[in-house]
């Protein structure tokens, strides 16, 4: 066996190992779906806790009115929650729109924190910390500025959180509001649906483990205070909070009946910047907690740490090697005795990817269609490769920022009317 054969074999085994893990998670997620789909949400306690809903917003004038009005329309008891919008150093008309909303709803618990270049403009974590100082709730809920949650979302999440003293947080499901806008948003719609039944429901079923997303969740205030607030250096504060919760003995519940609809990037440039920020944030958090991988106190997050490290290091390297070999073999520059074997496995990988993703789509009414199955096939050979570029570029940027002590830049995700 030549060196090229060995390198290709290692790459194939790495890719297939992670693919099989994902297939197992999808199957487990589907079992979780079957087990919970007909279960009613947990009811609120007789005296529900006061909830502070935070909305960090920077230049969100296009979407902020619809978001705030949907939050004020929750069926949660009106005197038991407040909405705090952090208008974070915005240069658009957000301040004027929020002032009009305050005048429109004078009798509601609705506050706006306006920051400037000195106090704000430092990212989501900083904005959340500012709101925490003013909040009155024993429970904190976070929604991104492009979200329109369904009326029952907050009630369902708080009912779930209060149903078990071991729970530190409860998360809901997010759907793509503009899924039919472009081919990219159709990709993202399928990605988010499959992610939630693979990475969320599957891990919940197998390991009682799930990860807080950046939106549509509730968490006990005391937990954030014990952490000293959100880490302002993290670009993925949700992963950071998740790791802390598990390592301090709490659990996180996934409740898919609590739904929010969010706007996704419609162009490649916006998508690329947003996903690069996610990659850098997750790398920061994984490396921050990597020291616990083989320590006893790290046992609750060991699977997540191993999974993230495998995806960002092993899988990415293997895919790069596989793609390079594929290009060189077409050009006739290299040859491997495993070429036929590799082609068969590549075809099987596509089939597995399509089947497992289709299983995830079957949990949502109207999503398992012929056109979406064709989109899934196209995703494998296009969107997945785009993620590879994002992961590589995110890692390069992260290393560059650490080596040259460059300040991380928070890229604003563009919104659409």
UniProtKB/TrEMBL annotation:
One of its GO terms (molecular function) is glycosyltransferase activity. The keyword Membrane applies. The chain crosses the membrane at residues 6-33, 305-331, 343-361, 373-396. Pfam families: Glyco_tranf_2_3 (PF13641). Keywords: Glycosyltransferase, Membrane, Transferase, Transmembrane, Transmembrane helix. CDD domains: CESA_like (cd06423). Belongs to the glycosyltransferase 2 family. This is Glycosyltransferase family 2 protein. It comes from Candidatus Paralactobacillus gallistercoris.
């Amino acid at each position: 066996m030549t060196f090229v054969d060995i390198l290709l074999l290692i790459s194939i085994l790495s890719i297939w190992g992670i693919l099989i893990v994902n297939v197992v998670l999808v199957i487990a997620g589907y079992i979780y779906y079957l087990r919970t789909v007909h279960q009613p949400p947990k009811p609120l306690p007789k005296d529900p806790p006061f909830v502070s809903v935070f909305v960090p917003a920077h230049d969100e004038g296009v979407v902020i009115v619809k978001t705030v009005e949907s939050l004020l329309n929750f069926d949660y008891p009106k005197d038991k929650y407040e909405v705090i919008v952090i208008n974070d150093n915005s240069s658009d008309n957000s301040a004027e729109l929020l002032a009009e909303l305050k005048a429109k709803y004078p009798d509601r618990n609705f506050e706006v924190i306006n920051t400037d270049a000195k106090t704000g403009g430092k990212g989501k974590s900083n904005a959340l910390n500012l709101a925490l100082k003013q909040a009155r709730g024993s429970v904190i809920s976070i929604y991104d500025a492009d979200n329109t949650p369904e009326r029952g979302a907050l009630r369902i999440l708080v009912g779930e959180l209060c149903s078990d003293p071991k729970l530190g947080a409860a998360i809901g499901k997010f759907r793509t509001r503009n899924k039919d806008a472009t081919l990219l948003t159709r990709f993202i719609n399928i990605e988010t649906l499959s992610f939630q039944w693979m990475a969320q429901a599957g891990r919940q079923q197998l390991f009682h483990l799930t990860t807080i997303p950046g939106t549509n969740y509730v968490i006990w205030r005391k937990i954030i205070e014990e952490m000293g607030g959100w880490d302002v250096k993290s670009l993925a504060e949700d992963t950071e909070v998740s790791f802390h919760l598990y390592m301090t003995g709490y659990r996180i519940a996934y409740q898919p009946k609590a739904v929010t609809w969010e706007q996704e990037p419609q162009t490649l440039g916006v998508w690329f910047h947003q996903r690069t920020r996610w990659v850098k944030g997750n790398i920061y958090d994984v490396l921050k907690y990597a020291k616990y991988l083989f320590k006893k106190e790290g046992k609750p997050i060991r699977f997540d740490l191993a999974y993230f490290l495998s995806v960002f290091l092993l899988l990415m390297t293997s895919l790069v090697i596989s793609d390079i070999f594929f290009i060189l073999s077409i050009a006739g520059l290299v040859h491997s005795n495993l070429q036929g074997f590799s082609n068969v496995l590549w075809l099987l990988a596509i089939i597995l990817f399509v089947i497992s993703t289709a299983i995830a789509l079957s949990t949502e009414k109207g999503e398992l269609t012929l056109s979406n199955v064709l989109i899934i096939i196209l995703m494998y050979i296009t969107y997945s490769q785009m993620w590879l570029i994002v992961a590589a570029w995110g890692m390069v940027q992260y290393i560059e920022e650490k080596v040259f002590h460059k300040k991380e830049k928070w890229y604003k995700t563009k919104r659409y009317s």
